[in-house]
Design brief:
- The chain is mainly alpha-helical.
- It is built from seven helices and two strands; from the N terminus they run ααββααααα.
- It has a two-stranded antiparallel ribbon.
- Strand 1 and strand 2 form a beta hairpin.
- Helix 1 packs antiparallel against helix 3 and helix 3 packs parallel to helix 7.
Length: about 140
């Protein structure tokens, strides 16, 4: 499934929720259902700078594809980074680096996220782009 197809799937899912509170609840459910995150990966090397809460994003390259493990100490941030990581996991670094999808716009997150959380989401995306760009070069 391409990055755009994953975005479209999440977009359809989020459109089912009529208000910001229900979208927040969806992000919290994403956090609660996310994979366990190994304690030994909660290190500064994998911490995303610019997030209000602590967020870890761990890239792993396998078979010319990038995969991301993620976690946060806050449920909304954890749900957000889980969603973002799932969109960009199992994709070629070049495809990620060349993707110009604005998730804030696509998911209408600017409406439901505070400015601090929007900055955090931007930092998560920036981290994924930087990692993929290094591997794509």
């Amino acid at each position: 499934m391409s990055i755009q197809e994953k975005v479209d799937d999440y977009k359809k899912m989020l459109a089912l929720f009529p208000n910001a509170q229900e979208k927040y609840q969806y992000l919290i459910e994403q956090a609660k259902n996310s994979e366990d995150f190994p304690e030994e990966l909660r290190i500064d090397e994998f911490k995303v700078n610019g997030c209000q809460s602590q967020v870890w994003l761990v890239p792993e390259e396998k078979d010319d594809k990038l995969f991301f493990k993620s976690d946060s100490d806050a449920l909304i941030a954890k749900g957000l980074v889980t969603l973002i990581a799932s969109i960009y996991s199992n994709e070629a670094p070049g495809d990620i680096a060349n993707s110009n999808i604005d998730l804030m716009e696509e998911f209408d997150l600017g409406v439901i996220l505070s400015p601090a959380r929007r900055n955090g989401a931007f930092s998560m995306l920036k981290t994924i782009k930087e990692v993929s760009q290094k591997l794509a070069d």
